[in-house]
């Protein structure tokens, strides 16, 4: 039996490694179009910033490691241009054909700049690969730009703005929608804007960028442009082979990560997953989901019977040292999904006052009819990660607000107050309900 995996970053190599553990006899080949595999793409903004000093620091494993230690053939510079599933083979750009018995699509996603005129100019960049980050680093060193425009106020956009500002550039972020961090939440957007402005970064929402001029964008003069919008799944190759595409534009799979073509699986940023709050297919590309879905796809391609239940869409981003974390649905999104949402938002100290604590903001959303928790937001210090994870666990457990209010959370003065901000928010939510 032979397994071919298209894509060699998070999902692809998680799949290959899992398949190898379950079947030592399986012949596994990973085809990666780029020069690098198994690297931490989420660290790219920090490579631009300089906190990560070398590109090599982001690389977890090399192709030689997989060949020698795992018995997996990993080929870089191997771009797949077609899949002929009736013949069980993939065609490479070089003309070579590679046969398979089972196939895993881990083709990832891309920053689609095709709708922006002038996006291919030398002072325009995306930030999706190690090569992208290296181009930006060279430009900063050689050209010493003074002003930058970042297109898109999602996670990568605000992280990139942070990184460029730390290089001394004046930075403006342009976002086509009315909200930041891909979440329809006015309070969150207001907090993001305030944090950016405190550190010299301007955020303009409701600005759609149709063209980039040599000296500016949307009337804003600049020396460089970083496009961090238009993130789309690489699903065209799959669609041409007869793989079904879901309503989100990503590849549709079942809970075993198998597509409509028997023996063909999909995982990572190219695939849909089930949102556990709405029960509907969703496209929320995150590194955590890529690794998990890759493991499930690899296990089942090797003959296992594993399943991936879904996600609640938990994420966290640092903006100039302050954490912005979200999970589940915002109040606006919950209403659009047919719920009757009730929200409670509080601000409280993250530790007792004698520890000079910072303020933590917590918002919880629940359904009026069932009192089930639907989502939450935490803004604060590094401890925001622990608090948003508590809410995420509650969402996955389909917990009611009254049950959440009674959680037995840890207390010690160096870490939290006796009434954790989560419990204060839950009390207010129960009152509102």
Please estimate the helix content.
25-40%
> Into which percentage range does the β-strand content fall?
25-35%
Strand order of the largest sheet: 3-2-1-7-18
| CATH level-two architecture of the largest domain | 3-Layer(bba) Sandwich
Task: Tell me the quaternary state.
Answer: single chain
CATH class of the largest domain: Alpha Beta
What global shape is seen?
globular
Number of domains: 3
The largest sheet, given as strand count, sense and whether it forms a barrel, is: 5 strands, parallel
- Give the number of helices: 12
Taking the alpha carbons of the first and last residues, their distance comes to: 56 Å
Radius of gyration (Å)? 23 Å
Which stretches of 5+ consecutive residues score pLDDT under 50?
A: none
Q: For this structure, what is the CATH homologous superfamily of the largest domain?
A: FAD/NAD(P)-binding domain
> Can you give the mean pLDDT?
97
CATH topology of the largest domain: FAD/NAD(P)-binding domain
Number of strands: 25
């Amino acid at each position: 039996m032979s397994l071919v995996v298209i894509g060699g970053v998070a999902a692809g190599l998680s799949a290959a490694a899992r398949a190898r553990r379950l079947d030592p006899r399986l012949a596994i080949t990973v085809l990666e179009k780029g020069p690098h595999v198994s690297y931490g793409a989420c660290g790219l903004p920090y490579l631009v910033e300089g906190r990560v000093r070398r590109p090599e620091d982001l690389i977890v494993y090399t192709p030689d490691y997989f060949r020698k230690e795992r018995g997996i053939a990993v080929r870089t510079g191997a771009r797949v241009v077609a899949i002929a599933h009736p013949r069980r083979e993939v065609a490479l750009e070089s003309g070579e054909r590679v046969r398979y018995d089972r196939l895993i699509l881990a083709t990832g996603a891309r920053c689609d700049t095709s709708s922006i005129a002038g996006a291919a100019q030398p002072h325009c960049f995306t930030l999706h690969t190690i090569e992208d980050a290296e181009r930006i680093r060279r430009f900063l060193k050689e050209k010493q730009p003074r002003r930058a425009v970042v297109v898109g106020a999602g996670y990568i956009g605000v992280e990139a703005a942070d990184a460029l500002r730390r290089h001394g550039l004046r930075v403006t972020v342009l976002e086509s929608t009315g909200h930041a961090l891909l979440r329809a939440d006015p309070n969150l957007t207001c907090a993001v804007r305030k944090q950016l402005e405190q550190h010299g970064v301007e955020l303009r929402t409701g600005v759609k960028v149709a063209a980039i001029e040599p000296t500016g964008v949307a009337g804003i003069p600049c020396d460089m442009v970083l496009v961090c919008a238009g993130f789309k799944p690489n699903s065209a190759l799959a669609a041409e082979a007869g793989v079904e595409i879901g309503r989100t534009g990503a590849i549709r799979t079942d809970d075993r990560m198998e597509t409509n073509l028997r023996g063909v699986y999909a995982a990572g940023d190219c695939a849909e997953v089930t949102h556990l709050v709405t029960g509907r297919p969703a496209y929320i590309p995150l590194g955590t989901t890529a690794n998990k879905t890759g493991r499930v796809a690899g296990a089942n391609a090797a003959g296992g019977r594993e399943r991936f239940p879904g996600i609640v869409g938990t994420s966290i981003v640092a903006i100039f040292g302050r954490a912005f974390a979200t999970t589940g649905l915002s109040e606006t999104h919950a209403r659009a999904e047919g719920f009757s949402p009730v929200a409670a938002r509080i601000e409280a100290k993250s530790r007792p006052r004698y520890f000079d604590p910072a303020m933590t903001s917590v918002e919880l959303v629940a359904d009026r009819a069932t009192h089930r928790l639907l989502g939450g937001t935490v803004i604060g210090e590094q401890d925001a990660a622990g608090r948003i994870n508590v809410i995420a666990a509650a969402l996955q457990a389909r917990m009611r607000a009254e049950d959440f209010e009674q959680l037995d959370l840890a207390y010690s003065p160096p870490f939290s107050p006796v009434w954790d901000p989560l419990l204060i928010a839950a009390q207010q939510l129960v009152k509102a309900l």
